[in-house]
Amino acid sequence: xxxxxxxxxxxxxxxxxxxxxxxxxxxxxxxxxxxxxxxxxxxxxxxxxxxxxxxxxxxxxxxxxxxxxxxxxxxxxxxxxxxxxxxxxxxxxxxxxxxxxxxxxxxxxxxxxxxxxxxxxxxxxxxxxxxxxxxxxxxxxxxxxxxxxxxxxxxxxxxxxxxxxxxxxxxxxxxxxxxxxxxxxxxxxxxxxxxxxxxxxxxxxxxxxxxxxxxxxxxxxxxxxxxxxxxxxxxxxxxxxxxxxxxxxxxxxxxxxxxxxxxxxxxxxxxxxxxxxxxxxxxxxxxxxxxxxxxxxxxxxxxxxxxxxxxxxxxxxxxxxxxxxxxxxxxxxxxxxxxxxxxxxxxxxxxxxxxxxxxxxxxxxxxxxxxxxxxxxxxxxxxxxxxxxxxxxxxxxxxxxxxxxxxxxxxxxxxxxxxxxxxxxxxxxxxxxxxxxxxxxxxxxxxxxxxxxxxxxxxxxxxxxxxxxxxxxxxxxxxxxxxxxxxxxxxxxxxxxxxxxxxxxxxxxxxxxxxxxxxxxxxxxxxxxxxxxxxxxxxxxxxxxxxxxxxxxxxxxxxxxxxxxxxxxxxxxxxxxxxxxxxxxxxxxxxxxxxxxxxxxxxxxxxxxxxxxxxxxxxxxxxxxxxxxxxxxxxxxxxxxxxxxxxxxxxxxxxxxxxxxxxxxxxxxxxxxxxxxxxxxxxxxxxxxxxxxxxxxxxxxxxxxxxxxxxxxxxxxxxxxxxxxxxxxxxxxxxxxxxxxxxxxxxxxxxxxxxxxxxxxxxxxxxxxxxxxxxxxxxxxxxxxxxxxxxxxx
Amino acid sequence: xxxxxxxxxxxxxxxxxxxxxxxxxxxxxxxxxxxxxxxxxxxxxxxxxxxxxxxxxxxxxxxxxxxxxxxxxxxxxxxxxxxxxxxxxxxxxxxxxxxxxxxxxxxxxxxxxxxxxxxxxxxxxxxxxxxxxxxxxxxxxxxxxxxxxxxxxxx
Lengths: 794, 155
Prior knowledge:
Number of strands of chain A: 28
Largest interface: A-B, 56 and 56 residues
Number of strands of chain B: 5
Largest sheet of chain A: 7 strands, mixed
Distance between the termini of chain B: 37 Å
Order of helices and strands of chain B: EEHEEEHHHH
Radius of gyration of chain A: 28 Å
CATH architecture of the largest domain in chain B: Roll
Radius of gyration of chain B: 15 Å
Shape of chain A: globular
Structural class of chain B: alpha+beta
Oligomer: heterodimer
CATH topology of the domain at 426-474 and 642-794 in chain A: Aldehyde Oxidoreductase, domain 4
Largest sheet of chain B: 5 strands, mixed
CATH architecture of the domain at 426-474 and 642-794 in chain A: 2-Layer Sandwich
Strand order of the largest sheet of chain B: 2-1-5-3-4
Helix content of chain B: 25-40%
CATH superfamily of the largest domain in chain B: Beta-grasp domain
Shape of chain B: globular
């Protein structure tokens, strides 16, 4: 009847093996596609092969007659029922955007857009019949090139009259956080250094391993939805808003979810159409996408042009940074599409004390798959620019890239530091992280080897890449989100239920899909309540259990959701204290809570939280006024962001005859504040770096001249394999955040943000002495080779 | 429909299947072996890897009828009497999984790798697993897990 006897020691910092592994390594997992219900029907989508076309006819007769087909839905059928898909971010008050139907009614605006839905008794029959739907298209000119689209050469949505959705401007002088950037540039042109560059953030595909899947059961009072999503709470609200189903009649469950990386932070046409199909047929319906569909139609990421001007004095002190962005929205605005460049806009100054900064960002529509959040969301783009530019400045000055960084970065004794973008960096120690990274990397020895290879004209050259990054985590103070044009808030919710046997249920509004919250939140609660790690169960991802929450993205879960869990735990202790005092016949002021036990100071008398939970459950001895529950709810509104930082060093070998790049060593020293579980943190760093390396060297979503995705399968879209990636040496420094009670920061995106510029800087460092000052990403052997032949563009 | 008889995780099943049914769909939909999953449609990702007569195969690239008369082992057949297989244990100990979607296939492929080469180098492990994609871990802890399993004699 009582809780496990063993009392925990120091759960914070303990590399606990994960609780969630037990089901994942034995195959006893609950993926959405595993859900099978009696009489369940299956959906198959008919998708447009054209990037921009008028739909002049959809003939469904043969499909309807095919074996097992229950119904076929078209845009004409659903024109009045489907509503419009939502966007949650408005970049400027003047922003324009097209309507976003789930199923095309008269035009298709990207290749992959849904034009018909086949509903059949089996997935195979649905798939067969989808081939029988005959769609007539009249092709329209497509806006495919981002720069041409920004100039309105061809309109993606002629009805809008422009491809420009919004132009967002931040100017440090106007905002009162810095000087005039044009003045700084003019002064540097006169007497100083001005460096101008243009970078391309290629289009990427998040490529979570579990394709998206949704099951909708309409057979009871409440619509039940299983969904492979990062954001079950969002999905519940949006099903209600888009389809008019009352919110309290909807239950959304995100069971085990196989990765997201931002790619499942969305409300999708497929979700809407599966709900409609279930409602129309009265039967449970399932849609599971194929990988080809996923690559084509799940939202993409990045895709920007970045024009940059950096001004510095002769000593290499940066005096201003000016950035002009074109951000490709694709055909529509998704939930936070318009906000992704804004999240980056505030980080182009990186870890540095730039006195003047101006950014202008134009969000542009094209007839391509819509873009939205992908791991880092804006911050990788910003960090790439500033870290590439610091290397360019170092090259111009002829000094070590770490030296020019140190000249400009915020010193550890200068925190809290108000930045030129209006943020307040609360803490950091860039000197310490860099010193540690240099030592682990063997920086000086590698520089010496590099020099030797240059002098000997070795065909394989060594390059050393530096990235000293920071990022903003812990999305986000609700007030800030509102001021930036986001429709939602940034708080998080948690509940703790004290069960009669002393076990503890923790309910979190975060929605993990690989991050290990079941383990980490158990550690937080075991530590705070003094119960055993094994006695804590973390429940999440089901809106009927976790009624309130804002889900998982933006490295927010620990800094916001984890702190909500601690706040709830503190409330449990607060609630238990007077009850303990009553039962122990002591004054509450004489009680100490430690190791899970209320003790009467100076005596042996005491009660464990488990004993109290049972006494409360019985209620026999409690005062009439005492609540018969120790349970507590808490919401946590973050005061401010947290700012992880670190120094990544990468050594590459570039074969100057073939252009092939091999990563020889990679050291990351990250400062993510206080660490709850170092094992999980290290895993996040590994995976994050892998995705950043992938952008630097491998991945790119490529379309042909008609707008067809030609990297439409894993044959062509190069998610790196084990053979493509190096082992990484990771280490940490620990500067606690001051913006939350535990001093944690966030780690989900750090590796991805840091590593792309580290790798590209290394590639360029290897061949700079051969006349190369840039290579567009991904730095494939062909592109490096071509740059060595004197033509960087490709 | 074609009648097949297959041993799966130690039990014998006789079923009628459509000739075009893929082995992975037979395992998942007819036998309820949902530990084995589908991740792509081109044979690249490897999440559906199982053993056929003790050797790894991508079960999306075989028809169910090709398994007729053969023995299939899935991730669900590895643990015995509630005891994890040493490779499963090694993945757990070394934090070799995050979302876990690739994990069943990765474990089955890792076993195949050690069957061929009980003491692989890091490079041999990386090459041996290149047909199995993972998006979460960067593979580093997967490599560690396979090294640990090899050191412990797991096969």
